[in-house]
Each structure stands twice: as structure tokens, then as C-alpha cells.
């Protein structure tokens, strides 16, 4: 079995994954390998399988999007989860995470994993906790060995990246308590570990036995996604001492991962006011020495329930422009219900818009070509190309087809008074041929 | 009849409109009057009527949202336009513009104007152009007298603010031609005037006879919204010489408006990459000496057809945070069709989110109270307050009601593994009472 992409990159060995990513990113494979060697880019790809599409995440690359799917204890429908996976891939997600907490977790994960051509992530503490709920009646019955057996099982199956909330420590929890918060802990993994830690009065096993985690990650080349169990759950809690204490710890853990030859990225908030987004990205990049930053949203208001994909698109665009590398989507159902297939679709597109907008702001050539193609089609009143150039041609086509203009080369917004048509015809003929 | 709010503010006379606005904004009426006197704040309110809700726009005030409604030559349904007005008001628009270009324009405008409790705007050149199309067969048959007669008619009826594309001059058009563009002119008003100017080889009547415009505006206290007829219609055209040449002219015209005691605001783009949004706001504030800035979006990508309300929410949030004062909504139907009632609803909410997010970033107390109320309700698992605190309680309620959790105080996203519930119960009892 090969070594991790990180170790190989350090040795100057170019893998097929590196070549595929370099090609997609219009970057030389040497430059890419350097960035991987420095820990600034990751390619989540489990050694036990070959990804149909390898994806690079980090500095100098285009912004990537992740889609969370999975059952809950209240709603279990594997068929629907498969559909969510399919629609997310169709509209362009770069990675997917199975966050299932209801039903047969193994079966669900294996089914989704098999169908995913892109990097596949999990939060193994979910399965560890829920197995103990079913077997012994409570989360607190998790044992260290059991947690690591779940992690290893998932690694063997071919999971590419794992969220591990290693920074929820007795120290950071103490800081949280001392300071107080409006919404204490909103991370499920963080809450599971907190419950366990406070019950047993013991340190977080993922922190205490971090070397054991690194060993498994190294063995399978699992990219560790160091979770932010203490991320703010409201604007008022953003950038507080608990959050930053955890981030400081994650920076140290990232360094230890690199020393062990393990790829690592850092998870970030959450709920953050617009004016704090850039500072949060800068802090991560400084405290974690350039490790890729994976943000959830961020949501720039607490009150957008039903429209949190829009609040997340605003926060995500600014975060990515400031240097965040990987945007976890948020759906319109956030804070309200388990997302439906349609919610997933809307969520992915929202995050894709944020990522694209940041790529444009960063001057990415391919992104600019897309917008130029659309602009030229608009200038030509070429509707076929306009529809095809849309971020979601299906929806654009639906909108256009549901409202037919009387003149075929305009739309019903302006009809015959279409500005582009008026000016175009005038400039072409010098005298107005089409006098509406 | 009273004088304009600007003239009255200069004299230190506090109007009922100023008092209402100051009260809403938590600002002393003296401070507000100073800002109006300096031209940094406008209160669009026609002398011929009393607004149910006076609205202030400009520096130091909360960010406001405008909704464009109106028929097109391809789709005329007054009943539906009334519904659009109603839904826009229901979800919190601060102003509305009737951009009708199809059907009986007078009847449509009068009907909508009568039902609008908030500032009501128009683009009079539409009616001027379209009347000539119907009477004489072409836009080019507009005469100066006819244009001003339409403006005066609309002013008499009670229109509060008017978009006038005074900056589309022979000089700025020449700059545009010399430079070249991907999407020449995308403003309807700009295109009407351009067609007329190039056909006759004459200067823009709204520029040439600007004093006549100021006279009417002063007489009725119409707030002039100096339109950006040369706004970029694509990212590639943003912040180009044509756009900035027009903005320079608008700055001069704003100064002349103030000298005539006329309230004025400046319209801005359009299609602008994320990294140019802040500079665009700064330029407007400098070139136009602090006149309120009214932006359309801006759209931070060209390819979001079907989701342009999201692209506009991103651009609008950043623009408003940087100092833009008034956000014109963009609907998901933009670039594709005349918006439906549902499109209008989605568009207004998108713009409201952008405005609110900027208010938060600017530290507005009322905005923060809203988010804190929501965060506290989340912390308490108080669903009734969560729904009521949402930006659109109707939609939030729908989402929640379509997916019922097994335990009533959580949602189906996390079910019994709700992080807030787990931690809350643990912290309350010190030993986990609820062991999922």
C-alpha cells in the first residue's frame, strides 16, 4: 500500500491523484506537491480505493464545496439519501459527508460510499456514540477502544476524510464555562464528547490518544478534519475565548499531524458577523500555519431560518475570498428540519455560487471564462448558450420556458424594450431599424 | 405647500417625516436634519401626499431595500402587480418602484401608488418613450417638452422618487464606444436615451435641461435618483471608464441638485466582482460627496441565472457594509423572465438578509437585538419564538411543520442527538438525565 500523499509529496513522488488535481487546477504538479508537502493543500483519498475524481483543497486552488447528507434518528430513508448524493454530485459538489445518526449506520455508509466518485467524509464519533446508546443505553458508555475501533472500521471501508473534535478539551470547556455563552455547544460531535468528558471527569479521548488517531490516519491516508466542537452557534458567541482556545489547540494538533505524515485540515465556524469573517480566516491561517480551512457557512445572521443557504452564501463568499479553502454547504432547512432532496440541491448551488464568486475575486482564469461566456451570450441575445452557461441550467431553462416572450430573442422582463436589443440594433444599422 | 425636506433641514425646521425617521432610526432629529442638510440622507416624500411610513435613506441609518414591480410589454396583469406590491410590503420592503412598460401605464401607476404606504418611485422616461412608440411609432419621436410633461404629470400624482439617467451623455457614450464593452448598455432607460441621442445627434435632454428637471423636483420635493444608464452588465465591464465617467458627471449633478434645494441619491451597479464592490462604494461616496448610494445588487457573478437573488445578496451585503445605503432587490427571475409574485417574495427576502447582515456588521443595536432574541430562543429550545424571530416566519413555520420530530423540543435534523439539548440537560443536572 502507498504512503500518504503528504509523505510522498515530501519525497518528491507524484501520485496519480496529484497529477489529476494539478491538471484540474491548471497548476504544475511540482507546485502542487510542494504545497502538499508544506501541509497547505490536502488531497483526501483513502489508500484502500481509487477515487473517480481526486480533489485538492487548499492554498492556490479553486474553492471547494462539501455536501452533508445522512439520516437522523427522526427520519431514516436510505433511498432518499442516495438521491441527495446524486443531486449533490449533479450540481457540482466536490465532496460529501455522511452524517447519518439513524438506522443501520454501516449499511447506509457503505451504500453511499460505494456510489461516491468524490472524496467521502464521516464523523466517526457519531457511530461510536450511537452504538453505545443502542447497546448500553447511553453515550457515556463509549470506551476509548470502542471509539478507535469505529474509526479503524470506517478507515478500512474507504472513508477519505474524518471530522474529529480533538480540540474539545477539559481546558477549552473550562474556558467556555468561565466565559458563558448564548448558545453553549451546537456541534453534535462536540456535545457527545462533552457529555462523556463531564460525566467521567476525563480528557477527550481524541485529544488524549491523538497519536493513536494519527497512526490510523497515516495507515489509510485519512485526511483529518480537525472539528470545531466549540464553534459559535450564534453571532453573539463568535470569535470568543472558547472558540479561539480550541483553534490554538487545533493548530498544535495540525503540526503533530504533519510530523506524523498525516494530511490535515481545520474546521471553522459557524455563526460569524460579516465584519469578523476575514479575521477568522486570518487567525486560522496564522495559528494553524496555513493548513486548509474548512468553514461551515459561515452564517452571517442568526435569523435567516428558511434562507440559511443565502446567509451562508454571503459568509462563505467572503470567507473564501479571504482565504478559506473549503465551504460546507448549508441548506434552507438548517435549524428547522432534516433537509430534503430539494433542500440539498438549493444548498449546494448556494455554496457553489459563493465558491465561484470567490474564485472570480481571486482572479481564477477558468472562473472568469465562465462569466465571459455568459456575458458574450447575453450580448448576442443567444439564449441557448445563456441557459447552458448558467450555474444550474435546469432551473434557468424552467424559468425561461414558463414565460414565453413575444419576440424570441428577448425575455418577458423587458420584452421589445430590451436594452441590449435596442442598442445592438442601433449600433448595427446606425439608424434604428427596430423602432419599438 | 411645504418646501423640500432639504431646504427645511437647512433652515432647522423639523418635519413630521424627519421626526418619524429619527424615531425609527434611534437618532436625534437634530442629527438627522444635519445629515439631510448636508445631502447625506434623503427622505423621499412627495409634497402632494402624506406617506403612511416615511423612510430615511443614507449615512448612519439602517440599510433600506427597494422592490421593483410592474408590467412588461409581454406580460400585463395589474392584479398580479398589486399582489407583488402587497407581498413586498408584507415581507418588509422599504420602498417600491413601478417599472411598468406594458398596458395602461397611468392606470397601473395610480393603482399601485394609491396602495403604497411607503416611498414610491418611477422611471418617467419609460412612459415618455412608450407613449411615443404608441402615438408615433418610435422612441426617437420623444420631444424635450413631452419628456418633461410626463415627469411633471407623475410628480403631480405623488411619486416620491424618480430615476433619471442624466449621466448618459454624448461624452460618456463616446468613452464607452472608444473603450468597447462585452455588454454595452443594459439599462432600459439608458438604452431609450441612447437611441434618441444617437438618432438625433443631440445631447441627453435630461442632462441638457437639468435645471428644468430640478425645478420640478424642487416644486414637488421629488428625490432624484440619478440613474446609472451605463452600469456594467457583466463582470468584465465593471468599474470601466464609461461607468466611472458617468459617475463623475452624476457627482456634479448631485451638487447642482443640492444647490437647487433638491434631494438626490446616486444609483450604482450592477455586475461587479466581489473584490471591486468596496472600491465602487468608496468612489461613489467620494465623487458624489456623500450622497446616498442606491445599488442594484450588485451581482458578483454573471452565471447565477435562476439564483441571482443569492448573487445579489452577497454583493449587496458587502456593498452595504462598505457604506451603500439602499439595496435594490434582484429576484431569482432576473435575466430570465418578468418576476412572479413568488419571485418578488424571494427577492425581497434576499435583499432584506443582505441589509440586515450589513446592519449587524455596522453594529446596529436593533439588528443585534433580533439576532440575540433568536439565539436565546435556540438556547432554550423555544420553537415558537424561533419561528417568530425568523426573517420570514411563514416559511420557517412551513419547514418545521413539514417534518415533525419525535421529541417536541428538537428538530428532525438531529432528533434526540440535538447538541443544545444534550449539553443543556447535562449542565442542568450535572449527571446526564437524558441518555439518548
From TrEMBL, chains A, B:
<comment type="function">
    <text>Catalyzes the synthesis of the hydroxymethylpyrimidine phosphate (HMP-P) moiety of thiamine from aminoimidazole ribotide (AIR) in a radical S-adenosyl-L-methionine (SAM)-dependent reaction.</text>
</comment>
<keyword id="KW-0456">Lyase</keyword>
<dbReference type="GO" id="GO:0009228">
    <property type="term" value="P:thiamine biosynthetic process"/>
</dbReference>
<comment type="pathway">
    <text>Cofactor biosynthesis; thiamine diphosphate biosynthesis.</text>
</comment>
<comment type="subunit">
    <text>Homodimer.</text>
</comment>
<keyword id="KW-0949">S-adenosyl-L-methionine</keyword>
<keyword id="KW-0408">Iron</keyword>
<dbReference type="InterPro" id="IPR037509">
    <property type="entry name" value="ThiC"/>
</dbReference>
<feature type="binding site">
    <location>
        <position position="267"/>
    </location>
    <ligand>
        <name>substrate</name>
    </ligand>
</feature>
<protein>
    <recommendedName>
        <fullName>Phosphomethylpyrimidine synthase</fullName>
        <ecNumber>4.1.99.17</ecNumber>
    </recommendedName>
</protein>
<feature type="binding site">
    <location>
        <position position="411"/>
    </location>
    <ligand>
        <name>[4Fe-4S] cluster</name>
    </ligand>
</feature>
<dbReference type="GO" id="GO:0051539">
    <property type="term" value="F:4 iron, 4 sulfur cluster binding"/>
</dbReference>
<dbReference type="GO" id="GO:0009229">
    <property type="term" value="P:thiamine diphosphate biosynthetic process"/>
</dbReference>
<feature type="binding site">
    <location>
        <begin position="187"/>
        <end position="189"/>
    </location>
    <ligand>
        <name>substrate</name>
    </ligand>
</feature>
<dbReference type="GO" id="GO:0070284">
    <property type="term" value="F:phosphomethylpyrimidine synthase activity"/>
</dbReference>
<feature type="binding site">
    <location>
        <position position="97"/>
    </location>
    <ligand>
        <name>substrate</name>
    </ligand>
</feature>
<dbReference type="InterPro" id="IPR002817">
    <property type="entry name" value="ThiC/BzaA/B"/>
</dbReference>
<dbReference type="Pfam" id="PF01964">
    <property type="entry name" value="ThiC_Rad_SAM"/>
</dbReference>
<keyword id="KW-0004">4Fe-4S</keyword>
<keyword id="KW-0479">Metal-binding</keyword>
<feature type="binding site">
    <location>
        <position position="335"/>
    </location>
    <ligand>
        <name>Zn(2+)</name>
    </ligand>
</feature>
<feature type="binding site">
    <location>
        <begin position="228"/>
        <end position="231"/>
    </location>
    <ligand>
        <name>substrate</name>
    </ligand>
</feature>
<feature type="binding site">
    <location>
        <position position="68"/>
    </location>
    <ligand>
        <name>substrate</name>
    </ligand>
</feature>
<feature type="binding site">
    <location>
        <position position="414"/>
    </location>
    <ligand>
        <name>[4Fe-4S] cluster</name>
    </ligand>
</feature>
<comment type="similarity">
    <text>Belongs to the ThiC family. 5-hydroxybenzimidazole synthase subfamily.</text>
</comment>
<keyword id="KW-0411">Iron-sulfur</keyword>
<feature type="binding site">
    <location>
        <position position="126"/>
    </location>
    <ligand>
        <name>substrate</name>
    </ligand>
</feature>
<feature type="binding site">
    <location>
        <position position="271"/>
    </location>
    <ligand>
        <name>Zn(2+)</name>
    </ligand>
</feature>
<dbReference type="GO" id="GO:0008270">
    <property type="term" value="F:zinc ion binding"/>
</dbReference>
<feature type="binding site">
    <location>
        <position position="165"/>
    </location>
    <ligand>
        <name>substrate</name>
    </ligand>
</feature>
<feature type="binding site">
    <location>
        <position position="418"/>
    </location>
    <ligand>
        <name>[4Fe-4S] cluster</name>
    </ligand>
</feature>
<keyword id="KW-0784">Thiamine biosynthesis</keyword>
<feature type="binding site">
    <location>
        <position position="294"/>
    </location>
    <ligand>
        <name>substrate</name>
    </ligand>
</feature>
<dbReference type="InterPro" id="IPR038521">
    <property type="entry name" value="ThiC/Bza_core_dom"/>
</dbReference>
<keyword id="KW-0862">Zinc</keyword>
Amino acid at each position: 500500500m502507498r504512503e500518504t500523499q503528504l509523505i510522498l509529496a515530501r519525497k518528491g513522488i507524484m501520485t496519480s491523484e496529484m497529477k489529476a488535481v494539478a491538471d484540474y487546477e491548471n497548476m504544475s504538479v511540482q507546485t502542487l506537491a510542494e504545497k502538499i508537502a508544506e501541509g497547505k493543500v490536502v488531497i483526501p483519498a483513502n489508500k484502500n480505493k481509487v477515487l473517480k475524481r481526486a480533489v485538492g483543497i487548499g492554498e492556490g486552488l479553486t474553492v471547494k464545496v462539501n455536501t452533508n447528507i445522512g439520516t437522523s434518528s427522526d427520519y431514516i430513508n436510505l433511498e432518499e439519501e442516495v438521491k441527495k448524493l446524486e443531486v449533490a454530485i449533479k450540481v457540482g459538489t466536490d465532496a460529501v459527508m455522511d452524517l447519518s445518526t439513524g438506522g443501520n449506520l454501516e449499511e447506509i455508509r457503505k451504500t453511499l460510499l460505494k456510489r461516491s466518485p468524490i472524496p467521502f467524509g464521516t464523523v466517526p464519533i457519531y457511530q461510536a456514540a450511537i452504538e453505545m446508546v443502542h447497546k448500553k443505553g447511553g453515550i457515556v458508555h463509549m470506551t476509548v477502544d470502542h471509539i478507535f475501533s469505529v474509526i479503524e472500521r470506517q478507515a478500512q471501508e474507504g472513508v477519505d476524510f474524518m471530522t474529529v473534535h480533538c480540540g474539545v478539551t477539559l481546558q477549552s470547556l473550562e474556558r467556555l464555562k468561565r466565559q458563558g455563552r448564548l448558545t453553549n455547544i451546537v456541534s453534535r460531535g462536540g456535545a457527545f464528547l462533552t457529555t462523556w468528558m463531564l460525566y467521567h471527569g476525563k480528557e477527550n479521548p481524541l485529544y488524549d490518544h491523538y497519536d493513536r488517531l494519527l497512526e490510523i490516519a497515516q495507515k489509510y491516508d485519512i485526511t483529518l478534519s480537525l472539528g470545531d466542537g466549540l464553534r459559535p452557534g450564534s453571532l453573539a458567541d463568535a470569535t470568543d475565548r472558547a472558540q479561539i482556545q480550541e483553534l490554538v489547540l487545533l493548530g498544535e494538533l495540525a503540526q503533530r499531524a504533519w510530523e506524523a505524515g498525516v494530511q490535515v485540515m481545520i474546521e471553522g465556524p459557524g455563526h460569524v458577523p460579516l465584519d469578523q469573517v476575514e479575521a477568522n480566516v486570518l487567525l486560522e491561517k496564522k495559528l494553524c500555519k496555513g493548513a486548509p480551512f474548512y468553514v461551515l457557512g459561515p452564517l452571517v445572521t442568526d435569523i435567516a431560518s428558511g434562507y440559511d443557504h443565502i446567509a451562508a452564501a454571503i459568509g462563505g463568499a467572503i470567507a473564501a475570498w479571504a482565504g478559506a479553502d473549503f465551504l460546507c454547504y448549508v441548506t434552507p432547512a438548517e435549524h428547522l428540519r432534516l433537509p430534503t432532496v430539494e433542500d440539498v440541491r438549493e444548498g449546494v448551488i448556494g455554496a457553489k455560487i459563493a465558491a465561484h464568486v470567490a474564485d472570480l475575486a481571486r482572479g481564477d482564469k477558468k472562473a472568469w471564462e465562465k462569466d465571459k461566456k455568459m456575458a458574450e451570450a447575453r450580448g448576442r441575445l443567444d439564449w441557448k448558450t445563456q441557459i447552458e452557461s448558467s450555474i444550474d441550467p435546469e432551473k434557468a431553462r424552467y424559468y425561461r420556458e414558463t414565460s414565453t416572450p413575444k419576440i424570441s430573442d428577448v425575455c418577458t422582463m423587458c420584452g421589445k424594450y430590451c436594452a441590449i436589443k435596442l442598442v445592438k440594433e442601433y449600433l448595427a444599422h446606425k439608424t434604428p431599424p427596430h423602432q419599438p
